[in-house]
Amino acid sequence: MFSKTAKYDALIALYARMAREGYDTRKGGRVTTAYADQEAVRFRHELKHLFATHQIRSVLDYGGGGGDWHDKPVKEGGSLAAFLNVEDYRVFEPARAMDDRELTDAVVCFDVLEHVFIGDVGYVLNDVFAHARRLVVINVAGYTANALLPTGENAHITIRSADWWQGAVDLVASAWPDVTAALYYSASYTQATRLNPIRFADVNAADGFVR
Fold it and tell me: Whole-angstrom Cα distance, residue 46 to residue 149?
């Protein structure tokens, strides 16, 4: 369905360099510890509801950075994996040569897609859905990052509207009708909006055509 461009691997090489060496910032200065946060923690309450609803026990963190769901206890106590009742946690982080991709109940992809070259968005989204049995949860940023690539370009290289991302997710989700897609759009780091979840098995079975 989708193929990756030459820019996919070129960007991975840049992000790997940033993970090793740190990066310059748009506001000045340099960050020496790159992509070490666990972004899923910010969405733990939304994930707890979604995981319970869809009976999620295994999860792939797609673009998981340097975080680990078994480290750093959440405010409620215990690890994120324990809080979400996750038994099997896997991570895919190509910038750190971590690739534990397998089919899991759910795939989460937080603050990743805005780092993907626009010509590779379809390829990456399809790969996300290909590893999910029941649920995909995505958060995408729609704002300029503080981080700069080694090229001097902003690290959020694909900034688009919420409607654009909803359309991109809907298009790919239609090829995976048994997977529910839940999309969150962040206008800023602290402001995320939940867009309408969609499962195309339900859409296809509903009466009428207009959606």
Answer: 31
